[in-house]
Amino acid sequence: MIRGIEASRSGMAVEQVRTDVLADNIANINTSGFKRSSATSTEFDTMLLYRMGDPADAAPQRVGVLGNGSRVDQVVVDERQGDLRETGRALDLALTGPGYFLALRPDGSLYRTRNGAFLQMADGTITTTEGYRVLVEDDAGNRVPLVVPGAEPEFGADGTVLADGRPVGRLALDGADASTRLHTRYLEASNADLTKEMTDLIVTLRAYQVNQRAMRVQDETLAKAVSEIGKV
């Protein structure tokens, strides 16, 4: 009985994580370049049960296999390409194919993003919407912040950055290959589909409720076993 309650509890925990992931997908349905995630679950190792000490048969008697509930295996990011939508804005960039834009956080760590809605600060620094400095690779292959004072940068399909017609570097990309292309005046839409996310959320909530009811039934049965059988 206690094992059954634990199995129901672990099932509820899995569905809670899945609900959180789906809620994040829905919250970012309009975030440019967002990649949806999904939580996968797996079963805990099963137990093989034997009946021991049977006076009719001294040999251990195999009863069967007992499940121990489930757990979250991993949260997987869906890397499928999102649709491109034209914006007409010079600093809006979109990637087709694999790869991420790279930016520099204030603590010096790298930030990967598919959201190419960049901004130009007063000093010419190009940043992400979060304020992180966009990186380019110079002729020596070093990654440096992109700064274009007094001019609006232009971008080539291969990521080359031009200022007043002169190349100043190439956008630093992580995970790109020969098929990766840069599109200017476009943004990549989120690849999350609201209909699918809402449908999956309903299924997840129903699964949570089933585990919740199973736990309640087992708890009531255990209470009766303690209070009524103990009187016999």
From TrEMBL:
<dbReference type="Pfam" id="PF06429">
    <property type="entry name" value="Flg_bbr_C"/>
</dbReference>
<dbReference type="Pfam" id="PF22692">
    <property type="entry name" value="LlgE_F_G_D1"/>
</dbReference>
<dbReference type="Pfam" id="PF00460">
    <property type="entry name" value="Flg_bb_rod"/>
</dbReference>
<protein>
    <submittedName>
        <fullName>Flagellar basal-body rod protein FlgG</fullName>
    </submittedName>
</protein>
<dbReference type="InterPro" id="IPR019776">
    <property type="entry name" value="Flagellar_basal_body_rod_CS"/>
</dbReference>
<keyword id="KW-0966">Cell projection</keyword>
<keyword id="KW-0975">Bacterial flagellum</keyword>
<dbReference type="InterPro" id="IPR001444">
    <property type="entry name" value="Flag_bb_rod_N"/>
</dbReference>
<feature type="domain" description="Flagellar hook protein FlgE/F/G-like D1">
    <location>
        <begin position="94"/>
        <end position="145"/>
    </location>
</feature>
<feature type="domain" description="Flagellar basal body rod protein N-terminal">
    <location>
        <begin position="6"/>
        <end position="35"/>
    </location>
</feature>
<comment type="similarity">
    <text>Belongs to the flagella basal body rod proteins family.</text>
</comment>
<keyword id="KW-0282">Flagellum</keyword>
<dbReference type="InterPro" id="IPR053967">
    <property type="entry name" value="LlgE_F_G-like_D1"/>
</dbReference>
<keyword id="KW-0969">Cilium</keyword>
<feature type="domain" description="Flagellar basal-body/hook protein C-terminal">
    <location>
        <begin position="185"/>
        <end position="226"/>
    </location>
</feature>
<dbReference type="InterPro" id="IPR037925">
    <property type="entry name" value="FlgE/F/G-like"/>
</dbReference>
<dbReference type="InterPro" id="IPR020013">
    <property type="entry name" value="Flagellar_FlgE/F/G"/>
</dbReference>
<dbReference type="InterPro" id="IPR010930">
    <property type="entry name" value="Flg_bb/hook_C_dom"/>
</dbReference>
